[in-house]
Amino acid sequence: MTTHVAYTQVAGKPNWSRYLGWGLLLAALAWAWHGAEMNPMALVRDSSNMATFAADFFPPDFREWRSYLKEMLVTIQIALWGTALAIVCSIPLGILCA
């Protein structure tokens, strides 16, 4: 018995709910792509601005270090909450998948 025959015997007919789920996932990703304004061609089109943008970081200017520190703490807080929520969501999903 070949692997393909064994797989088709176990898998059976195509599951349309699986295709629908993948379609919904791809639609959500397309929606998020547009909402996040992802535009790979903008990187190519505006590549001349990248050097100017990077040059503005040198030499570093620490006159507003308090503002930078505050925003760094906000970033850490967001990362902590994102990690905590991912753990909370992953436990029941992991049990459901097992």
UniProtKB/TrEMBL annotation:
<feature type="transmembrane region" description="Helical">
    <location>
        <begin position="72"/>
        <end position="95"/>
    </location>
</feature>
<keyword id="KW-0813">Transport</keyword>
<protein>
    <submittedName>
        <fullName>Phosphonates ABC transporter permease</fullName>
    </submittedName>
</protein>
<keyword id="KW-1133">Transmembrane helix</keyword>
<keyword id="KW-0812">Transmembrane</keyword>
<keyword id="KW-1003">Cell membrane</keyword>
<keyword id="KW-0472">Membrane</keyword>
<feature type="transmembrane region" description="Helical">
    <location>
        <begin position="19"/>
        <end position="36"/>
    </location>
</feature>
<dbReference type="GO" id="GO:0005886">
    <property type="term" value="C:plasma membrane"/>
</dbReference>
